[in-house]
């Protein structure tokens, strides 16, 4: 190649960033690359933030992949500095991967727990695609009955009622004026019922591989049916997927969630994930007074003590903690794994989570519990 066709040395780092985006599934046309370089030249950037904004304006990453774009930008331009800073940032994804121990070798692609029947500790970072399928009967039932059967709580506002613990003095005095000052009937009031927050935590590790897709579809229906639901996934990392699941079309929502979650079908470190959840004040606030539903087999490969402590803290914040496991195949289920034995006394329900029908039935049964 002649010298006049070679890429200027100063531009190589920007072109290689575009190549990194393409390697990670971003669609970037040659014209966008040229516009990106022109924007850099025009700005004469004085900071990395100027370069980041130029890339957002010209390379146009999809909104649902903005976090991935930012992460790739930091890795490319900041290198090791970005990894050190990531722990202190308020991100939607809390990284739990153990660095530099060398005790566990990540499984090769062909050996990465294809059966989904065993728990793994090592982290496997993959993307997942969800198949298009018709909505099952349990999901239709959840969508139809969620508004009236999901759990509720007593609000602070009051409403008129035939019988209630509070006297409605305003209405009583108004009625007495119509009856020449005689109080014929004492008006009553009671506290309004409001929907209770629901925190839905989904295990996406390799041992739950067979149930992951159905659980994500169920989570999407739940988010669409109730406005106060928060959904997180966990395996070796903790990821908030609520914004993606708020998209109305299921295929679009699940595809957006698949880009956010990077530890599909990987290892299982439930205790670390829950500890990370509680360590972020904004996330921990989602659990306060909420109905917490954890869908996991409980095949923990981390420290059971960390899981026990996390579930104990969660139970003190939440209204109710339900652990749904595919291992609970009968009403008289007795935990056999070390992790489930450790958390049993801190959960209110330890029931079957091996099918969408079982999960939906439990969610709708929470509405029969007495509102606090």
Total of helices: 15
Q: Could you say which structural class the secondary elements and strand pairing correspond to?
A: alpha/beta
Q: Based on CA inertia axes, which overall geometry fits?
A: globular
List how many beta strands DSSP finds.
10
Please state the second-level CATH architecture of the largest domain. 3-Layer(aba) Sandwich
CATH class of the largest domain: Alpha Beta
Number of domains: 3
Poorly predicted runs are: 80-117
Q: Overall mean pLDDT score?
A: 81
Write down the Rg. Answer: 26 Å
Widest sheet, order of strands = 1-7-6-5-8-9-10
Give the helix level as a range of percent: 40-55%
Strand content: 5-15%
InterPro entries: UCP010256, Uncharacterised_CoxE, VWF_A, vWFA_dom_sf
Organism: Bradyrhizobium elkanii
Pfam families: VWA_CoxE
Protein name: VWA domain-containing protein
Describe the fold and architecture.
Residues 195-365 form the VWFA domain. Residues 93-104 have a biased composition (Basic and acidic residues). This is VWA domain-containing protein. The chain is α/β, with parallel strands linked by helices and 372 residues long. The chain folds into three domains: 3-89; 137-149 and 196-368, von Willebrand factor, type A domain (Rossmann fold, 3-Layer(aba) Sandwich), CATH 3.40.50; 156-192, no CATH class. Helices cover 44% and strands 14% of the residues. The chain has 15 helices and ten strands. The strands form two sheets. The chain has a seven-stranded mixed sheet with strand order 1-7-6-5-8-9-10. Strands 2-4-3 form a three-stranded antiparallel sheet, with no helix packed on it. Strand 8, helix 13 and strand 9 form a beta-alpha-beta unit. Helix 6 packs across helix 8 (209-225). The longest helix has 17 residues, at 209-225.
């Amino acid at each position: 190649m002649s010298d006049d066709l070679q890429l200027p040395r100063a531009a190589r780092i920007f072109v290689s960033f575009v190549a990194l985006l393409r390697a990670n599934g971003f669609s970037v046309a040659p014209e966008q690359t040229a516009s990106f370089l022109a924007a850099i030249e025009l700005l004469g950037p004085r900071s990395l933030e100027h370069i980041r904004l130029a890339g957002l304006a010209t390379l146009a990453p999809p909104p649902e992949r903005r976090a991935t774009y930012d992460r790739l930008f930091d890795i490319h331009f900041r290198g090791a500095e970005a990894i050190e800073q990531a722990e202190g940032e308020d991100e939607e994804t809390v990284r739990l991967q153990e660095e530099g121990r060398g005790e566990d070798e990540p499984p090769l692609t062909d050996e990465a727990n294809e059966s989904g029947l065993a728990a793994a500790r090592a982290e496997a970072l993959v993307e997942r695609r969800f198949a298009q399928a018709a909505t099952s009967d349990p999901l239709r039932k959840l969508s139809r009955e969620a508004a009236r059967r999901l759990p509720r709580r007593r609000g602070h506002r009051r409403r008129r009622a035939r019988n209630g613990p509070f006297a409605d003095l305003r209405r009583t005095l108004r009625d007495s004026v119509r009856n020449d000052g005689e109080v014929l009937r004492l008006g009553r009031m009671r506290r309004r019922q409001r929907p209770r927050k629901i925190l839905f935590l989904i295990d996406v590790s390799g041992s739950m591989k067979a149930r992951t897709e159905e659980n994500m579809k169920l989570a999407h229906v739940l988010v669409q049916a109730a406005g106060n639901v928060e959904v997180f996934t966990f395996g070796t990392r903790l990821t908030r997927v609520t914004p993606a699941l708020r998209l109305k079309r299921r295929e679009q929502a699940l595809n957006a969630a698949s880009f956010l979650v990077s530890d599909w079908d990987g290892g299982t470190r439930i205790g670390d994930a829950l500890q990370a959840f509680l360590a972020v004040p904004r996330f921990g606030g989602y659990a306060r007074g909420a109905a917490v539903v954890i869908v996991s087999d409980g095949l923990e490969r981390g420290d059971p003590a960390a899981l026990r402590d996390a579930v104990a803290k969660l139970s003190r914040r939440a209204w109710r903690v339900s652990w749904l496991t595919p291992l609970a195949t009968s009403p008289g289920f007795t935990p056999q794994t070390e992790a489930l034995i450790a958390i049993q006394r801190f959960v209110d329900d330890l029931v079957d989570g091996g099918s969408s029908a079982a999960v939906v039935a439990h969610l709708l049964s929470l509405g029969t519990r007495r509102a606090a």
